[in-house]
């Protein structure tokens, strides 16, 4: 007796069953019915456009800039920029990129808004905002400034530029401040900074810079200048600090508070004006010349040394 | 002999009436209409006394082309009442604008706004804008159509004096024995008129406005305060007809400015402001004023203050238009279109006027034989547009009380009857007055913490529909 091993082909029936059930379930009309039920039984002609729109709505996508050259930042990025630039500028105050970044990250909206309303409440301030003048070496005609009489604002400005060896073009464009008008206001503040040196006659070395910053902070209220005035003296020598405390701080506080808002000055239009007259109009006192004072101080030191040698 | 003549003559000039209404404004006329159309009180002898000539109201039969500047917001509840007394049939329907929403926003932060849309509570209108003279005309026409000879309207006649025949002596000794136990004369007040007549009345109604002589006669104290602000009103034309038909209100720190729609491209403004500004607004060149309104609905307050300064120097300074245009160009055109009212292009000549703003509320509305209605009882800040409607609800409550008294056979001048009126009308009026007063105060500052808090308040109210629906029902009168 032989046992015939036979393979039981019991898969045929299930196969037939499954295929027929599938054919019924996924028949063309059923598929269409399902599509109708879910709402879209035709090809969506807007598909391409919808996909593109969705692409624009992606999370973590930077919003469109408010003005050419604007880099919109998230708040956490602004905070990081503030931390980095403040540490950087404390240890390397001579490096411009730190100072620039610190200035922009501390110029928060309420302060700029405040400055904006100062400008908007004044006829000349409004004129500046409407015309948006920029101060550059091409807009100013430096040769003409050199030809002006000695005591004019234009001449002392150009004298100051020449003495310090800087140019109006050294001012960097504002990048990180939102809202076009607020950005312009900060740009204007930055470009006018050299004029403050010119009308006060304070040099670009660190003490002069600190004195102008205090003056500026009292007058305009940009926090950057306040921070500078607060932390920069920590790195100074004792004699420098004493000079600041005794002469320049009182001057800066008083003049800054008493003078009219400097942001509302249309510098380009008053280049021919007499500096003393202008100072009187704005209620600014002239500080003592820092360069001369330093010269006298070093002279004294040298003499002391020589005396000791003798 | 002489005595007899004197007695005779006094009898000749003195007449007796059931109700004398002093004041022919909307409140007084509504009361007269309501009394004469109610089946219970229609037989009362009524007299209405008005100091000015009512022919001006009658002439509204042929209304002027432009809207008059006294326009009020009338709630559906008030309209319902005027339909009930039958005067609404006579109103010039083509001069009424129904509106179905209010958008109120803060000048310090344009993001904080409340948008009321009446379709959310399943109604078709929030309120209607209507000229005061239109309402007066409809009421007067209704009264005259009744041809009732117990109605006496005396216009162009002033009240000289009101006498109480039994003025109690307040300083009498309490232990003294009262000699006049029985009053020899009627205790009804006597109203002396400028034409020599005097009327003795069972019930005297004061509908005679803020400085009510009737209230003074009744020794009713009215408490409140002047806001030291003026409301400037004007009729204006918008750029084109706005399909949105909503009222716009912007809360400036000097006071709210509202633009409310009228038919077609017409609109009316109410601008609450300081006395100096109101002087300025009446003085500004007619061609500049519309642009100033547009600017005041959109621009920051710094800009507005600058514009005011320039215009104070010279009210005809057209250079300011360029400035306004420049500041408006800072806004995204789409936002301007969606979130702000249409620009105002024209102000109707001589339609600008101003009135002082104040809050006042009488301690009570009644005393023996006297009742106060309308502005005589309360004056309110116009920011919610409730002034006229409060007067209408006064009338409705008073008529209800009088009807009840008549049905019970009581003397309608007795405090027992009138008490009912005060207890129904006073509390809700007091609440409304308080709410408007507080709103005015909250919004008249730019102190940052308060600006911040009210911003949160407005935004959250705007998000919570149940609160919004409740407020809308309150505004539109349930």
UniProtKB/TrEMBL annotation, chain A:
Its main location: mitochondrion. The keyword Ion transport does not apply. Its cofactor is Zn(2+). Zn(2+) binds at residues 193-194, 197, 209. It comes from the Eukaryota. It catalyses: a 4-hydroxy-3-methoxy-5-(all-trans-polyprenyl)benzoate + H(+) = a 2-methoxy-6-(all-trans-polyprenyl)phenol + CO2. GO terms for cellular component: extrinsic component of mitochondrial inner membrane. It is a peripheral membrane protein. It is found in: Mitochondrion inner membrane. GO terms for molecular function: 4-hydroxy-3-methoxy-5-polyprenylbenzoate decarboxylase activity; zinc ion binding. HAMAP family: Coq4. This is 4-hydroxy-3-methoxy-5-polyprenylbenzoate decarboxylase. It comes from Candida verbasci. The gene is COQ4.
From TrEMBL, chain B:
Keywords: FAD, Flavoprotein, Membrane, Mitochondrion, Mitochondrion inner membrane, Monooxygenase, Oxidoreductase, Ubiquinone biosynthesis. Pathway: Cofactor biosynthesis; ubiquinone biosynthesis. InterPro entries: FAD-bd, FAD/NAD-bd_sf, Ubi_Hdrlase_CS, UbiH/COQ6, UbiH/COQ6_monooxygenase, UbQ_mOase_COQ6. Its cofactor is FAD. Its EC number is 1.14.15.45, 1.14.15.46. The keyword Oxidoreductase applies. GO terms for molecular function: 2-methoxy-6-polyprenolphenol 4-hydroxylase activity; 4-hydroxy-3-all-trans-polyprenylbenzoate oxygenase activity; FAD binding; oxidoreductase activity, acting on paired donors, with incorporation or reduction of molecular oxygen, reduced flavin or flavoprotein as one donor, and incorporation of one atom of oxygen. It is a peripheral membrane protein. Its main location: mitochondrion. Residues 346-404 form the FAD-binding domain. It is an enzyme of class 1 (oxidoreductase). It comes from the Eukaryota. Transmembrane segments: none annotated. One of its GO terms (cellular component) is extrinsic component of mitochondrial inner membrane. Pfam families: FAD_binding_3. Component of a multi-subunit COQ enzyme complex, composed of at least COQ3, COQ4, COQ5, COQ6, COQ7 and COQ9. This is Ubiquinone biosynthesis monooxygenase COQ6, mitochondrial. It comes from Candida verbasci.
């Amino acid at each position: 007796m032989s046992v015939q091993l036979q393979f039981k082909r019991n898969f045929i029936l299930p196969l037939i069953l499954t295929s027929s059930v599938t054919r019924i379930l996924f028949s063309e009309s059923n598929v269409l019915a399902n599509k109708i039920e879910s709402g879209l039984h035709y090809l969506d002609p807007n598909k391409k456009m919808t996909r593109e729109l969705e692409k624009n709505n992606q999370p973590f996508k930077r919003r469109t800039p408010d003005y050419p050259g604007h880099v919109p930042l998230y708040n956490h990025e602004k905070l990081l920029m503030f931390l980095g630039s403040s540490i950087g500028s404390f240890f390397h105050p001579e490096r411009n990129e730190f100072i620039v970044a610190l200035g922009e990250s501390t110029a928060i909206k309420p302060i700029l808004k405040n400055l904006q309303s100062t400008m908007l409440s004044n006829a000349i301030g409004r004129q500046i905002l409407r015309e948006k003048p920029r101060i550059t070496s091409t807009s100013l005609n430096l040769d003409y400034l050199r030809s002006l009489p000695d005591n004019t604002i234009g001449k002392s400005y150009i004298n100051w530029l020449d003495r310090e060896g800087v140019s109006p073009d050294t001012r960097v464009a504002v990048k990180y401040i939102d809202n076009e008008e607020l950005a312009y206001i900060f740009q204007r503040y930055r470009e006018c900074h050299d004029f403050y040196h010119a009308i006060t006659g304070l040099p670009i070395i660190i003490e002069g810079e600190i004195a102008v910053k205090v003056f500026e902070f009292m007058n305009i209220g940009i926090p950057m200048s306040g921070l500078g005035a607060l932390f920069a003296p920590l790195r100074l020598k004792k004699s420098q600090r004493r000079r600041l405390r005794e002469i320049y701080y009182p001057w800066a506080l008083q003049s800054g508070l008493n003078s009219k808002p400097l942001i509302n000055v249309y510098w380009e239009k008053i280049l021919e004006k007499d500096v003393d007259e202008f100072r009187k109009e704005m209620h600014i006192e002239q500080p003592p010349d820092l360069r001369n004072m330093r010269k006298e101080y070093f002279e004294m030191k040298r003499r002391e040394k020589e005396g000791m040698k003798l | 002999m002489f005595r007899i003549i004197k007695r005779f003559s006094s009898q000749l000039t003195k007449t007796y009436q059931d109700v004398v209404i002093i004041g022919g404004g909307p409140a007084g006329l509504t009361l007269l209409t309501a009394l004469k159309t109610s089946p219970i009180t229609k037989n009362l002898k009524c007299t209405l006394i008005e100091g000015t000539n009512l022919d001006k109201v009658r002439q509204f039969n042929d209304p002027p082309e432009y809207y008059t500047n006294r326009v009020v917001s009338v709630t559906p509840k008030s309209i319902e009442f005027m339909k009930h007394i039958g005067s609404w049939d006579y109103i010039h329907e083509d001069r009424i604008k129904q509106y179905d929403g209010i958008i109120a926003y803060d000048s310090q932060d344009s993001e904080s706004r409340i948008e009321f849309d009446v379709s959310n509570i399943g109604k078709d209108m929030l309120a209607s804008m209507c000229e005061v003279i239109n309402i007066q005309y409809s009421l007067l026409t209704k009264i005259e159509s009744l041809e009732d000879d117990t109605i006496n309207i005396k216009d162009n006649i002033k009240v000289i004096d009101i006498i109480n025949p039994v003025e109690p002596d307040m300083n009498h000794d309490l232990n003294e024995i009262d000699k006049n136990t029985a009053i020899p004369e009627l205790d009804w007040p006597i109203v002396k008129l400028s034409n020599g007549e005097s009327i003795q009345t069972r019930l005297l109604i004061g509908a005679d406005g803020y400085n009510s002589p009737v209230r003074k006669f009744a020794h009713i104290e009215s408490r409140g305060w002047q806001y030291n602000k003026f409301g400037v009103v004007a009729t204006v034309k918008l750029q084109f007809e706005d399909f949105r038909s909503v009222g716009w209100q912007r809360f400036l720190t000097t006071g709210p400015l509202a633009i409310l729609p009228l038919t077609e491209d017409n609109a009316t403004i109410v601008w609450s402001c300081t006395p100096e500004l109101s002087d300025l607004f009446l003085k500004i060149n007619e061609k500049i004023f519309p642009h100033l309104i547009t600017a005041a609905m959109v621009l920051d307050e710094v800009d507005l203050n600058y514009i005011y300064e320039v215009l104070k120097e010279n009210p005809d300074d057209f250079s300011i238009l360029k400035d306004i245009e420049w500041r408006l160009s800072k806004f995204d055109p789409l936002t301007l279109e969606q979130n702000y009212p249409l620009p105002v292009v024209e102000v109707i000549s001589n339609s600008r006027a101003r009135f002082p703003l104040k809050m006042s509320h009488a301690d009570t509305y009644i005393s023996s034989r006297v009742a106060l209605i309308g502005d005589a009882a309360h004056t309110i800040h116009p920011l919610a547009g409730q002034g006229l409607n409060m007067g209408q609800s006064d009338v409705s409550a008073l008529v209800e009380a009088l009807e009840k008294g008549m049905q019970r056979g009581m003397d309608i001048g007795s405090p027992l009857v009138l008490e009912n009126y005060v207890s129904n009308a006073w509390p809700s009026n007091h609440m409304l007055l308080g709410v408007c007063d507080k709103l005015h105060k909250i919004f008249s500052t730019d102190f940052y913490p308060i600006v911040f808090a009210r911003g949160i308040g407005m935004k959250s109210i705007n998000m919570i529909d149940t609160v919004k629906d409740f407020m809308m029902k309150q505004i539109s009168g349930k």
